[in-house]
Design goal:
Layout: H1 10-54, H2 70-96, H3 98-121
């Protein structure tokens, strides 16, 4: 029965711990995938912004960050502001999810240390 004090508790504890680790690792992977989607969305927004600002420009060099006139400089400033706003948004998003990220970093380290320990045994 569950209340039997004579039972060896160690196997139970190991199973319980491994289940928790696997659950946490799965959550870590899920959130990591969500972060990747988030960043790919940011990349998409950046590409759209680039296309928008390059649309009426005949000077292709602008794509490589070469500004030769005031229009180029103004557009660069506008792009920089937009980029800053997007970065701020992502930064705030990360801060709001900090309570999720902290344990995930720990799990990531645990995963690595487990791998390292396994390496020492072989």
């Amino acid at each position: 029965s569950c209340g039997n004090d004579l039972e060896d508790p160690k196997p139970k504890i190991v199973v319980f711990a491994s289940n928790n680790i696997m659950e946490a690792v799965n959550q870590y992977r899920l959130i990591r995938n969500l972060i990747q989607i988030q960043y790919s969305t940011y990349g998409y927004i950046r590409n759209v912004l680039n296309r928008f600002f390059l649309m009426n420009r005949s000077d292709r060099n602008f794509e490589y960050g070469i500004q030769r006139d005031q229009i180029g400089k103004d557009t660069l400033n506008h792009r920089t502001i937009m980029k800053y706003m997007i970065n701020q948004h992502l930064s705030n998003l990360k801060k709001s999810q900090k309570k999720w990220f902290d344990p995930l970093i720990l799990i990531s380290r645990t995963e690595r240390s487990i791998n390292l320990n396994l390496g020492t045994f072989w």
